[in-house]
Amino acid sequence: MDEFKDTVKSQIFSLDGFDQIVSSMYIPCYYWFENTAADTSWIKYMPPEALCYSFYRTLQDFPIIAGRFKTDKDDRGYVEVDKNDLNMPIYTDASWDVEFKKIKDAGFDTKLLPETFQEACSIAAASRFATTSAKLGIFRICRLKDFSGVVILASIAHGIVDGHGHLAFMNRWAEVSRWMQECLAKKELQLPTRTFIHDRSIHKDYRLHGTDALDDMTLRSAYDGSSLTRFFSRLPIDKRNRIFKSISPSKNIVCCNFHVRAEPVKELQESLQEHARHGSRYTTNDVFTALMAMVVSQAIHKNTVSNRNRVVSKMKSSLFGNSNNKADDMLIAVAVNMRSRIDHPSTKDFVGNLSFVRYITCSQALVQAENNLENISAVATNIKDAISTTDKKYIGQLNNLINSESDSHMRLITNCRKYENIITISNVSKASYYEMDFGSGTPSLVRPTFRVTSNSVFIMPCHSDIGGYDFVMALERDVAGVVVQDKHWMRLVDSYDFDI
After folding, report:
1. CA distances from 417 to 242, 304, 319, 327 (A)
2. What is the 3-state secondary structure (H, E, C) of 186-206?
3. Are residues 217 and 129 in the same domain?
4. CA-to-CA dists, residue 283 to 38, 272, 290, 396, 491, angstroms
5. CB crowding 134-169: b at 16 or more within 10 Å, else e
6. Which helix (H) or strand (E) holds 474?
7. Do residues 169 and 216 share a domain?
8. In CATH, what number is assigned to the domain containing residue 129?
9. Is residue 48 scored above 80 in pLDDT?
10. Among 363, 350, 64, 27, which Cα is nearest to 196's?
């Protein structure tokens, strides 16, 4: 820690509109490591000293985590890192009298971990630190009974990193930790080359001017002026957080964790290919996105609309006015990874801040049709066609649009809330979550946790050791009950559990 404090410089990191909106939220993720070696000591298995030193050494590459959220006289947000008044992240390392196997047999239930691990729930986590001195990073290490394993909880403020930025920090921490344990013994003092870079300024090169290529919905959303959204975007973090907590149905949301085997997914992909139009080739991403759109939307449709939902609908109508959107449309928000659609920087050199949400309108009748190959193929084609139009020029224009004003992204979100049925799908199945190795092997499981909004899906990467994919869903309790009754979906599912 002392080395970090001695080397860090005072600096300012500008925030865009989206950063400000989500500054009271966190990206929390659990990393589960099982000790399968015969060694029964912490000296060789993820030693505390190595993890602690490498953590603060990694922080030198991510000084923004030791800063504070602030707002200037024009209501534009920024993070200030003051070397004389650092806002150091929380870092703890403790032991716990529960074996890894017991937690694993319970479906990796976080309730078997110490109470301090229960705070990692997006807004709920932020509520304890939602002040002008909000901690921008919370890192907890739990060493399980009889050296059976280690759990790392990493929760980083969403206002300073996106999901890939979170991954960049964790991978760098693992790289430095391995260097600490392996290279120092050989007197190799040169740090390894960073595999992932998180540079907040580089995406400015892709901000182009003009709006001619923007679709009508994005234009309407961005320019739909609203005093409510402007007011909300300028609220202090603590007050904004209270509103998030009051409108979020977090008490009624459960985290559903489904493990899907790789083999049936491949078979489904091959079968769908027979129904592809215009010679399209479906990737696993296409299949997953279409499948989740159908499974979740059908569950929403089948679930009886409660009185509370009717009240919420009336509130939306009074707040946002009548919507021009068709009642039979389903809005699907797909997190699109820009990196595959730009020439520079390369995937190897950069992760973070170059992904955005592409809003796709699908026919509600289509996504709620029977889960046969033809219908899934039609949805996959619809989504694939919409995303494929997102070229470099469009990305630059959209970036310019959502970053040009502090509240423009909030307008976009507000406009989208006019839809009664929204599904948010974050497909990170190609990301490198399982490559991180702190010197004792890769994690057995990586699982995000979130209960901010309902009907959200995280598709995690394939893990060769477990032979499949993990789907993490945040669903309303009744909707989750319908999902597990979907016979077509459950044919792919090998196991599942609820984190209530």
Report:
1. 19, 20, 10, 13
2. HCCCCCCCCCCCCCCCHHHHH
3. no
4. 40, 10, 11, 25, 20
5. bbbbbbbbbbbeebbbbbbbbbbbbbbbbbbbbbbb
6. strand 468-476
7. no
8. 3.30.559.10
9. yes
10. 350
Average pLDDT, stretch 304-324? Answer: 40
Q: Domain range holding 33?
A: 2-199
Q: Residues 377, 434: contact at Cβ < 8 Å? A: no
193 and 211 housed in the same domain: no
Instruction: Report the range of poorest mean pLDDT among 184-193, 232-241, 444-453.
Output: 232-241
> What does the pLDDT look like over 365-377, one tens digit per residue?
655 566 666 776 7
Distances (CA, A) of 423 to 218, 446, 457: 17, 22, 8
Q: Are residues 96 and 242 in the same domain?
A: no
Domain end marker among 153, 170, 199: 199
**Does one domain contain both 128 and 35?**
yes
Q: CB-based contacts of 117: which residues, under 8 Å, 6+ apart?
A: 30, 110, 140, 142, 151, 153
Q: What residues contact 489, with CB distance under 8 A and at least 6 apart?
A: 291, 295, 371, 483
Burial of 500 (0-12, 13-18, 19+ CB in 10 A): exposed
Q: Which two structure tokens, joined as six digits, stand for 310?
A: 């009717």
Averaged pLDDT of the chain: 68
Tokens matching residue 50? 């190595």
Whether the predicted pLDDT of 11 surpasses 80: yes
Residue type, 273: Q
- Looking at the structure, do residues 339 and 377 belong to the same domain, yes or no? yes
DSSP-derived secondary structure letter, 65: G
pLDDT digits (tens, 9 = 90+) for 280-293: 676 776 677 777 77
Classify 253 as helix, strand or coil.
strand
Closest CA to 385 of 493, 240, 286: 286
288 & 349 share domain: yes
Read off the amino acid at residue 389: T
Domain boundary among 166, 199, 232: 199
pLDDT exceeds cutoff 50 at 254: yes
Instruction: Give the pLDDT of residue 344.
Output: 38
Bigger pLDDT: 407 vs 257: 257
pLDDT digits (tens, 9 = 90+) for 426-451: 766 666 666 788 988 888 888 887 65
What is the count of structural domains for the chain?
Answer: 2
The H or E element that residue 219 is part of is helix 216-223
Per-residue pLDDT reduced to its tens digit, 25-38: 788 889 999 998 86
Give the dihedral sign, CA 227/233/236/237. positive
- In tens, the pLDDT along 340-394 reads 433 333 333 333 333 444 445 555 565 556 666 677 677 666 665 655 444 444 3
Q: Let me know whether 102 and 250 are in one domain.
A: no
